[in-house]
Amino acid sequence: MIHFVGAGSGAEDLITLRGARLLAEADVVIYAGSLVNPALLKNCRENCEIHDSASMTLEDVLSVMDRAEAAGQTTVRLHTGDPSVYGAIREQMDALEERGIPYDVTPGVSSFCGAAAALRAEYTLPGVSQTVIITRAEGRTPVPEREQLKKLAEHGSTMVLFLSSSLLEKAQQELMEGGYAPETPAAIVYKATWPDEQIFRCTVSTLAETARANQITKTALITIGGFLGDRYDRSLLYDPGFSHGCREASK
Ligand code: SAH
After folding, report:
1. What CA–CA distance (Å, rounded) separates 140 from 41?
2. Which numeric CATH code is attached to 2-106?
3. Ligand 1 pocket mutation pick from 16, 82, 86 by most atoms within 8 angstroms of CB
4. Is residue 74 classed exposed, middle or buried when 0-12, 13-18 and 19+ CB atoms within 10 A define those classes?
5. pLDDT 10s per residue in the chain (251 long)?
6. Residue owning the nearest CA to atom 13 of ligand 1
7. Which atom of ligand 1 approaches the CA of 109 most closely?
8. Ligand 1 pocket, 117 CB below 6 A?
9. CATH of 111-228, one of 3.30.950.10, 3.40.50.2300, 3.40.640.10, 3.40.50.2000
10. How far is the CA of 112 from the centre of ligand 1 (A)?
11. C-alpha of 188 from chain center
12. Which of 55, 64, 75, 122 could bridge 28 with an S-S bond, Cβ 3.0-4.6 Å?
């Protein structure tokens, strides 16, 4: 059996109870060493076989899984954040399907949630934005034409860029061409929820300069939008004048 497990965004106590239990029981662990906090591995069994996938190919990962399965062992594939976000798990799951190897998935706290917590922010502020666009700038990995930053920027929504901190010169240009005003608030969150977390608040027009000045080239999220500003409407849900399924409006 293979368990795909989300490790959470960094802090070692942000893994789910289920994830932690599976990790503690595993015979084999394959973890994404470039981003998963190694402190998570300290509860692994003493004789647990541990592989860092940073230098492995998909084929290498699958051959470890194949071998463990043939030996009747349990494998945890530990991905950073939540495995469904830029986790490259679909190709692993499809290969396991082909081989008839059973697997399941345990979600994790994605770094975009960790970043909101670090910023003490709410992405979906009433009167500001009710939409979060999660995307990346185009680098060596192509992004479909219809999802170019310039097009997504037309919505003016909250936006979170993964995998983009070394591509900010071009990204900020596209974001502004697409419709964000240059003074739109933005924040770079480096290693959200890790002990060495850092937050750099800036504007869309100063993203590249801010990253450069602070030597941020990886393990960072770029967040953009009015949710980082001061103005918003209060929620209807908790407004005394608003009735809903669980509460009558007071007069
Ligand atoms: N599955 C992961 C994302 C993997 S892609 C998740 O759900 O978070 C790797 C990218 O995620 C990094 O380049 C960076 O942009 C972002 N990232 C991962 N952990 C981060 C953290 N703790 N703080 C800021 N960004 C992070």
Report:
1. 31
2. 3.40.1010.10
3. 86
4. middle
5. 999 999 999 999 999 999 999 999 999 999 999 899 999 999 999 999 999 999 999 999 999 999 999 999 999 999 999 999 999 999 999 999 999 999 999 999 999 999 999 999 999 999 999 999 999 999 999 999 999 999 999 999 999 999 999 999 999 999 999 999 999 999 999 999 999 999 999 999 999 999 999 999 999 999 999 999 999 999 888 999 999 999 899 86
6. 163
7. 7
8. no
9. 3.30.950.10
10. 7
11. 14
12. 75
CA 83 to ligand 1: nearest atom:
1
How is residue 249 annotated by DSSP? P
| Helix runs in 74-196, H state only | 90-99, 111-119, 149-153, 168-178
Would you kindly state where each structural domain of the chain is located, as residue ranges?
2-106, 111-228
The DSSP call for residue 244 is: B
